[in-house]
Amino acid sequence: MSKLIGIGVGPGDPELLTLKAIRVLEKLDILLLPTGRSGGESEAYHICKEYIPELVSLEKRYFPMTNDKDMMMAAIAEIAGEVKSWTLSGKTVGFVTLGDPMLYSTYGYLLKLLRDEIEVETIPGITSFGAIASGFNKQLCEGDTPLVIYPCVDDLKELDELLSTQKSMVLMKVYKSFERVKALIVAHHLEDDCLIVSNFGKASQKVYYGLEEVNIEELSYFTTILINKEV
Amino acid sequence: MSKLIGIGVGPGDPELLTLKAIRVLEKLDILLLPTGRSGGESEAYHICKEYIPELVSLEKRYFPMTNDKDMMMAAIAEIAGEVKSWTLSGKTVGFVTLGDPMLYSTYGYLLKLLRDEIEVETIPGITSFGAIASGFNKQLCEGDTPLVIYPCVDDLKELDELLSTQKSMVLMKVYKSFERVKALIVAHHLEDDCLIVSNFGKASQKVYYGLEEVNIEELSYFTTILINKEV
């Protein structure tokens, strides 16, 4: 029954783990812990560590968060090779991921390299934007309105058009791009339809109900803006 | 501590309940069960019933699923009145919802009527599309690609444009509109990028890897199409 299991652990609160995630964590041989900085800590591990048996072998690996896709894919390919050899030697290997594993997660790249090579199972997780919407009693979308999830990690080339045509949006990873995102939101007169949350569910959480309040020094990589013109 | 608690129970598998949902279910006085047909069963209840103590009072209410918004809002306003009177008499009232409560759920309308009147707490749930993506090891989106969630419940007026400009989409509630959706997918040559799932996670689940295989008689209201041009 050796395989790779990708496990979504949700955005921060251990109570948002699913029963399935917990059952699976308890039967692992090896847990691969992704870190975004060399020598850094795995945030996903901190969310679920109380459910990981002591006998599970923890293997921390550095997944570079970089715009250099070749460098990133080379690092992931090397880790995929390790995962493959572990599973072929009979081990069940877990990979924990913040939020949901199928939504902008490094796990997706690992999955593509391995799903035709070894058995892979994936456990979904609560998304950051879903948890924020519930946490603030603010609907993401209703009726026949589409919901657009937009990662603010690159050139934002479509964001202007989407802000003008869409009613319900989630802007994820608003961090380095905050000033440009802010300018677009102001241009579309959406200042009053925004909820801005940095590090949701963590001790360092910051919430802003308007753009002018934002202290850019406090914004983390995990900054999310919910926009809903209808509610 | 009386309040309304909206509880996402996920798409079908009880193992996809969160620890928080289970903890909250165990402390309710009243559980409001939405049904989509008069006299029908609550699917959300079946997912979580093993965690509901016997002493919890079950109150089934009919939430009409209709395009007549006035009729729908009148029914919801009446139920909101009941919830308000229960909470004012000291009861903790739960409302279970399939998937996530903030994403196309009737709960959203109830929430809007009550959140300024009584205390309301909301617990997020695993979405159907997140669970389907994990269940089939198919990424929803990656990198800087937006993800568009599109409910196929109305005139599909934006769908043509979105299918031409977007790489990653989730089409929800593809049911009455299947033939029109199919024609648009074929027009955009996306047949091979589709995964079609009806009643995910239930005994009646059907999976199709192409449009031509679909037996329209088998499609349920809960039919989802994942489109990803990149993976």
From TrEMBL, chains A, B:
Keywords: Cobalamin biosynthesis, Methyltransferase, S-adenosyl-L-methionine, Transferase. It holds the Pfam family TP_methylase. It comes from the Bacteria. One of its GO terms (molecular function) is precorrin-2 C20-methyltransferase activity. Pathway: Cofactor biosynthesis; adenosylcobalamin biosynthesis. The keyword Lipid biosynthesis does not apply. SUPFAM superfamilies: Tetrapyrrole methylase (SSF53790). The keyword Methyltransferase applies. InterPro entries: 4pyrrol_Mease, 4pyrrol_Methylase_sf, 4pyrrole_Mease_sub1, 4pyrrole_Mease_sub2, CobI/CbiL, CobI/CbiL/CobIJ_dom. Its EC number is 2.1.1.130. Residues 3-210 form the Tetrapyrrole methylase domain. It is an enzyme of class 2 (transferase). One of its GO terms (biological process) is methylation. PANTHER family: COBALT-PRECORRIN-2 C(20)-METHYLTRANSFERASE. Belongs to the precorrin methyltransferase family. This is Precorrin-2 C(20)-methyltransferase. It comes from Fusibacter bizertensis.
